[in-house]
Structures are given as C-alpha cells and as structure tokens.
Amino acid sequence: MTTATKKTLVVLGAGTAGTMVANKLRHRLPKTDWTITVVDKTDIHDYQPGYLFIPFGMNTPEQIRKTKHAFIGDGVDLVLAEIDKVDPGAKTVALTDGRTLSYDYLVVASGTSPRPDQTPGMLGDEWHKSVGEFYTYDGAVALRDQMRAFKGGRLVVHITELPFKCPVAPLEFTFLADDYLRERGLRDKTEIVFVTPLDGAFTKPVASKELGHILKERNVTVETDFMVESIDQERKVLISYDEREVPFDQLVTIPLNMGAEFVARSGLGDDLNYVPVDKHTMQSTEFPEVFALGDASNIPTSKAGSVAHFSVEIFVENFMELIAGKPMTHSFDGHANCFVESGGGKALLLDFNYDTQPLTGTFPLPKIGPMTLLKESRANHLGKLAFRHIYWNMLLPGRPLGLPPAMSMSGKIPADA
C-alpha cells in the first residue's frame, strides 16, 4: 500500500488524553495503513497534579516538567504549531504557520485553561502576587513565593465558576494551607476562608458532607453561593453579583476555565468552547468523524486525569470497531477517581460516575484496598504521591494499569447523604 492511500488520524493536543490516545492507537493501527499526527503549540508537558504541591514545597518545579517528545511514541508525528481553525466539512486543520493537515478522523484533546481575563479586576498589578493561582506552572511557582512570605492575615481560596479542571484541588489547597500554616506557627494568626459558587464544599452531596465536615474541623469559614462579579485589587476584596464583599490579604483564585479558542473559531464548541459530544462515546454530536477527549469535551463528569484515562480506554476500543465498519459497543460511564489531599500526610479517595455518588469501601480491591474510599488514610496519600511515577512511566506511554474503565460496585457501600 502506498503512502497516498493511508488513512490519517489527527490529534489536537499532546496533554494527558492526546498523548495516551496517540500511543495506544499506534500500537493498534498498522503503520502501513494509518498515519497518526499530534499537534501541540509547545514541547512542554507538565504533570499538572503537581501544581498543587509546589506552593507548599512538596514538589519542585523541575519534578513536574518534561519534554513532550519523550512521551510521543515511535511512528507518531508530533507537529509543534498553533492551531488556527478546523474545517469539519473539508476535514482539514489549518495551522497559523500556513500549513494545512487533512484527516479522516479527528480527536480534539486540547484541554481547558484558566481565563483570568474573563473576570473584571482579576488581572492587574497584583496578579500572581496577592491575587494568586496554582492552575498554571508560573502561577504555582509565584504562589510558592507568596506563601513563603505570608505572615498571617486573611487567606481566601476562591472558585469562580464550574466546570473547572480537577474540582477537588481548591479543597486540597485549603487543607494543605491549614497544615502548612500550623507548621510555620502562623495558623492562629490566619483566617482561612473558602469561597464557592456552590451551596456546599463539593458538587456531589455525599462528598460535600464529608469534606464540609473536614473544613469545619479545620476552622475554615465557608462562603457559599458566591458568584463573583469583580475583584478590587486596590481594596483587596472579592465582590459578588449580590453585592457581598469578601476581603483578603492573600487570594488564591481558580479563574473561569474555558476550552481552546480554535474550538470556538471552528464552530465546534459551546459557549465555554467545550465540544458537545455523546457522553458515552465522546463522538461529536454534529460531526461523526470528530471526537473530543479529556477536558476538551462537555461530558458531565469531573475534568480530571482519571476521566481522561478511563474515557480513552473506551474510545480506543470503539474506534477500532468504527474503522472496521462495526457499531461502537463500548460505553463510558463517567467514571472518576479523585484523590483529595487533606493534610497531615493523609488523603481521601472519591470514586463515582455519571449515576453513582461517591461510595464507601476500598479501592482497587474489594475488602483489601489498600486505599479507602471517602475516608482519610495514609495509604490514600501515598497513592497520590506514587501516581506521579505511574503517570510518566505507564499512563502517558499507554501501558495498561490494570484498572477497568467502568466503575466497579464490588465491595462498595453507599454512604448516607
């Protein structure tokens, strides 16, 4: 077969989902028949869960940053370029350097990004100073320096709006800040305030109850139903649409998250630039040759690495059926698996899907664990720390982890909401 007759899969984005799917399909698709091309604007791959630990000195910046080239397998073309626009009718991707890529199938895996420009007053002279964030590499490093210089006062952790990447991370930051300030002898001089647009600590009622209890134990004030309208950097206050004000000495905010701009320019996205898809197959609701994986889609579950992992497993099996002319028979259930660092060398583990609230029990093995669900444990904390090694050495290369993508109910018990 000649090169001209090859089919082409183009993957937009070389983050967690994009790298995994390219590597997994490279093992499954014959090189004589298929070309796989991955497009990304930079050669930098960050282990994004590590951003959380940088402000507290638990990870160094060097530990979480590597080159993308090292994780793209042989036989996959990595193109470093900005994406201008997708033309789904013509099945082409235009790059800003003038090149055009044609595809037979397209995977959008361009993720989600914090957009501080969308909230009046968030950007300004105090951005990455008294108005901090830890959802970017630069923001996490700047916040590390701010936390080192912090001498006490009002520390406010704030969520702008849902959905956003890793929805448990603001709670984790709050718990770790409580721990960090106690160790430095500053907790008695600090009021910690958790400000959220939700009516509780988390989206899932069962988890919200458990996490809200921990916030109360740690003497954290919770300001609920707070829809931020603007930030006054000069007065150091958050202002809501219902005219409440929350003053701060150090703000740690999670800006509005949005999908990639090229998604909007291509007419592929919703009002937040996420690609509408069938939540079970991740296939575009409008263009059958287009799929969206990871944080780039609008599926109603957490924007988390575990969701990217489990949904990629389902997508790969379905894609092999699709190109063989068969119906796609695998269905993603929205399975999410989230560690929640709670400080003191412990963490909780949440396991849920589209239809099931977080349960109690053990994970991954019934009655054996070693990790416990919906309860703090040392094993959960060690599991989270170990995941960085698993991420670089198994997950990104597309090696099997031995975890089924569907949520297992074996040995698990519903908790009372």
UniProtKB/TrEMBL annotation:
It holds the Pfam family Pyr_redox_2. Residues 8-148 form the FAD/NAD(P)-binding domain. One of its GO terms (molecular function) is oxidoreductase activity. Gene3D superfamilies: FAD/NAD(P)-binding domain. This is FAD-dependent pyridine nucleotide-disulfide oxidoreductase. It comes from Intrasporangium calvum (strain ATCC 23552 / DSM 43043 / JCM 3097 / NBRC 12989 / NCIMB 10167 / NRRL B-3866 / 7 KIP). The lineage of its organism: Bacteria, Bacillati, Actinomycetota, Actinomycetes, Micrococcales.
